[in-house]
């Protein structure tokens, strides 16, 4: 019996690997990196939304601490990640995503395993949910501006200021505003829905941006590049960590955190139901939630670790709360309505 | 001795009963608190589920002839505010799922608005709200089901149970301590009374006047009345003995005196012989009566021994002086050898006198005419009476002190066999011994009263 079960599992693993190798997998991956271990006894398979350059310092540091764990790092968009875990039931050991809503849905719908350790117990209450989702970074949605476009005027500090400025200067900003296409980007949708909850200005702002022919992007990276290149005057709701990372080597851009409120997204990790190497996945979670003790890594990755203190200091910061509330905007009808409203506002059909 | 372990203790029984009651109350407290707390926690969850379902039902609207729902953010986020439980919801119009989890089961009509069932591997609690909505002119029935797992509830009830258990246990400890105190204070009057009775001397028969609670009054009354009767009876006995001695001895003395006088006047030898026999019989009767009374006195007094100081030397000399006339009748010389000047001892003087008199009387009685008796007082303190009589055979030494037991070789002498018994009982009552041995210096015996050293 036991032998049979082991061999079935072995075949399943082999088949999955085979399918993976042949690219027959139903979910789309963007990239895949292998980080072999010195003796290669154990392998930790991670699916993540973070680009390899962002996450690589963390993997390297982890392997320094655990040299016998090889890491297979697969990058996918947050929706593909969701599909991989919930529909394909792919056997990843760890799922890391910035889409808190999708991670919450995975956990809520029973696709995650419980995990508890001293390290996770030390997390603030808002940084974990149900002992299944663990936040390890806090990344605000910020505005990135081109310094050139704001040479003669102060940068707006609130959304109302931004609306007033755009209304007063339509010619200068026409076609030079960038924001997420929330129909494609998971992070964009999360920020937009949270904005709509937090302020009535959101829909006015969206309409104003629509009238000024806002450019729509699927990711932060391209938006920041266009700001840096001067093609955009400002980009609204950019993931702060990406912006900070680009700020270092890109002249002419500036990060403006809003002062009315600042949505703070938490990057989270969970152990999928089909995980094979739960032990090492736990080690990685422990490592991730203790990143606040590794300033060296923060300096390399620009990923701000979870810290209750820094959130308390910034009174505008509103961490997006993990929990069933996040399921609301994933509701089919709700999402349809929201996207229809958004399209009406920004595309100005 | 073995019965001791079965002896019941009021204190233990009281403690056991109080402890059992406290334990039962603690258990009842624990169960009630837990039940109430669990009910309260469950009600809280039910209320929130109902509020959530109601707010969703309120957000159902008709748009261009189609029914839609604009799920309020708070509808689900409120469920996340009390616990980290998984949440499921489903909105149906008629039989069609409008949105939510398609596989969330419909409530059975009999169950009412709340229901508990298994869903996706966990126990969930659900609330259901129904509404009638109009859709394209026709009326439709809208059903909103909101369900939540019960892990938070379990955690809360576990916490409360833990707390109730701790409090219940604390209650038990306090109650046990209090019942110890209660048992102690309830038994205090009894202990007080026991001590006041136990402290008394042997002849203290005054009524008990300790403050007693009303429950003990009958017992104390009974005890007091018993002591009063005992006292009366003792007094009566003593009076009776004294009276009897007087009443028996006086007529006998009169008879003896008359016989003596008649003997002196009588000239016929056969009359003289019978008168002498008569005098001897009267002497024996008088002596036996005296010994019987002595023995009764000894029995009575050894139970409530007097504790006074007196000089044993003086007492012995008095006794010797008292019996010297009797010895003279048989031409027996009594010599007293003193090895100490005085010998003060503690004890019952009257009893000691009885003992000395009986031993000496015995010695005189069993000594042949014209012999010597030596009374020797040594420091030990020991008083030895050495005679030249017929002595005791080895067989007699063991039971000679038994009541009415006499040596095997005294058939020709009238006697009651009480003399040594009296001496032995007196010595025992004083913690001393009576030693009987053959006379080391020849014929006869040596009887010693050995008094315990202080």
UniProtKB/TrEMBL annotation, chain A:
The superkingdom listed in its UniProt entry is Bacteria
- SUPFAM superfamilies attached to this UniProt entry: Periplasmic binding protein-like II
From which residue to which does the signal peptide run?
A: 1-26
What Pfam families does this protein map onto? Answer: SBP_bac_6
UniProt keywords, alphabetically:
Signal
> Record keywords: Chloroplast included?
no
Gene Ontology cellular component terms for the protein in this record:
outer membrane-bounded periplasmic space
Carries keyword Signal? Answer: yes
Q: What is this protein called?
A: Extracellular solute-binding protein
Lineage start: Bacteria, Pseudomonadati, Pseudomonadota, Alphaproteobacteria, Rhodobacterales
Automatic annotation (TrEMBL), chain B:
Q: Which residues form a coiled coil?
A: none
Q: Which InterPro entries match?
A: 2CSK_N, HAMP_dom, HATPase_C_sf, HATPase_dom, His_kinase_dom, HisK_dim/P_dom, HisK_dim/P_sf, Sig_transdc_His_kin-like_C
Entry annotated with the keyword Transcription regulation:
no
Per its UniProt record, what SMART domains does this chain match?
HATPase_c (SM00387), HisKA (SM00388)
Domain Histidine kinase per the UniProt entry, residue ranges: 243-454
Taking the first listed entry, what is the main subcellular location of this protein, grouped into a coarse class? membrane
- A Pfam family this chain is assigned to: HisKA
Output this protein's name: histidine kinase
- The source organism is Halocynthiibacter halioticoli
């Amino acid at each position: 019996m036991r032998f049979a079960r082991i061999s079935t599992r072995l075949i399943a693993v082999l088949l999955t690997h085979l399918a993976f190798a042949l690219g027959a997998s139903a979910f789309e991956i963007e990239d895949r990196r292998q980080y072999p271990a010195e003796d290669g006894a154990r392998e930790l398979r991670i699916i993540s939304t973070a680009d390899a350059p962002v996450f690589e310092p963390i993997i390297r540091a982890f392997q320094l601490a655990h040299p016998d764990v090889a890491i297979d790092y697969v990058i996918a968009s947050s929706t593909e990640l969701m599909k991989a875990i919930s529909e394909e039931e792919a056997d990843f050991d760890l799922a890391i995503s910035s889409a808190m809503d999708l991670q919450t849905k995975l956990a809520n719908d029973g696709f995650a395993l419980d995990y508890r350790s001293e390290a996770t117990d030390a997390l603030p209450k808002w940084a974990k949910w149900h002992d299944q989702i663990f936040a390890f970074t806090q990344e605000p949605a910020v505005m990135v501006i081109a310094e050139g476009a704001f040479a003669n005027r102060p940068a707006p500090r609130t959304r109302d200021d931004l609306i007033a400025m755009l209304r007063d200067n339509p010619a200068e900003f026409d076609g030079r505003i960038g924001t997420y296409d929330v129909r494609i980007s998971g992070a964009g949708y999360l920020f937009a829905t949270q904005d709509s909850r937090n302020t009535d200005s959101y829909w006015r702002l969206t309409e104003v941006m629509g009238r000024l022919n806002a450019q729509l992007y699927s990711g932060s990276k391209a938006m920041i590049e266009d700001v840096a290149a001067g093609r955009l005057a400002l980009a609204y709701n950019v993931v702060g960590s990406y912006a900070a990372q680009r700020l270092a080597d890109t002249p002419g851009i500036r990060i403006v955190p809003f002062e009315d409120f600042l949505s703070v997204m938490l990057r989270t990790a969970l152990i999928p139901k089909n995980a094979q190497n739960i032990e090492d996945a736990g080690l990685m979670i422990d490592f991730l939630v203790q990143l606040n003790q590794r300033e060296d890594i923060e300096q390399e990755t620009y990923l701000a670790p979870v810290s209750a203190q820094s959130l308390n200091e910034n009174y505008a910061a509103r961490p997006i709360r993990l929990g069933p509330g996040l399921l609301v905007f994933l509701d089919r009808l709700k999402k349809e309505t929201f996207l229809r409203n958004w399209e009406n506002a920004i595309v100005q059909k | 001795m073995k019965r001791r372990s079965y002896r019941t203790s009021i204190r233990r029984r009281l403690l056991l009963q109080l402890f059992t009651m406290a334990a039962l109350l603690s258990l009842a407290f624990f169960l009630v608190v837990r039940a109430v707390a669990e009910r309260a926690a469950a009600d809280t969850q039910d209320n929130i589920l109902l509020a959530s379902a109601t707010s969703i039902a309120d957000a159902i609207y008709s748009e261009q002839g189609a029914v839609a729902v604009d799920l309020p953010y708070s509808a689900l986020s409120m469920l996340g505010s009390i616990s980290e439980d998984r949440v499921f919801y489903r909105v149906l119009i008629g039989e069609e799922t409008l949105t939510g989890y398609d596989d969330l089961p419909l409530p059975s009509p009999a169950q009412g608005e709340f229901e508990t069932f298994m869903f996706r591997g966990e126990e969930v609690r659900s609330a259901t709200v129904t509404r009638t909505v109009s859709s394209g002119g026709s009326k439709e029935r809208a059903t909103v089901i909101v369900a939540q797992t019960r892990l938070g509830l379990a955690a809360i009830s576990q916490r409360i149970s833990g707390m109730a258990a701790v409090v219940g246990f604390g209650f038990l400890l306090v109650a046990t301590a209090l019942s110890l105190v209660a048992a102690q204070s309830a038994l205090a009057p009894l202990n007080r009374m026991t001590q006041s009775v136990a402290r008394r001397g042997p002849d203290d028969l005054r009524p008990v006047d300790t403050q007693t609670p009303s429950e003990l009054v009958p017992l104390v009354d009974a005890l007091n009345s018993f002591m009063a009767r005992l006292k009366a009876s003792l007094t009566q006995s003593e009076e009776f003995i004294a009276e009897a001695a007087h009443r028996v001895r006086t007529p006998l003395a009169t008879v003896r005196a008359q016989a003596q006088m008649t003997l002196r006047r009588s000239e016929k030898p056969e009359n003289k012989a019978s008168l002498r026999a008569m005098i001897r019989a009267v002497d024996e009767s008088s002596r036996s009566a005296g010994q019987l009374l002595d023995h009764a006195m000894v029995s009575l007094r050894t139970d409530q021994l007097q504790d006074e100081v007196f000089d044993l030397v003086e007492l012995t000399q008095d006794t010797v002086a008292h019996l010297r006339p009797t010895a003279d009748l048989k031409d027996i010389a009594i010599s007293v050898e003193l090895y100490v000047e005085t010998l003060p001892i503690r004890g019952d003087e009257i009893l000691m006198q009885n003992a000395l008199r009986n031993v000496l009387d015995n010695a005189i009685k069993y000594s042949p005419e014209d012999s010597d008796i030596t009374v020797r007082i040594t420091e030990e303190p020991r008083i030895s009476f050495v005679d030249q009589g017929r002595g005791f055979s080895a067989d007699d030494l063991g039971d000679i002190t038994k009541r009415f037991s006499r040596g095997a070789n005294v058939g020709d002498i009238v006697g009651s066999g009480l003399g040594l018994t009296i001496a032995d009982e007196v010595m025992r009552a004083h913690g001393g011994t009576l030693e009987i041995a053959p006379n080391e210096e020849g014929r006869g015996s040596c009887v010693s009263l050995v008094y315990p050293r202080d």
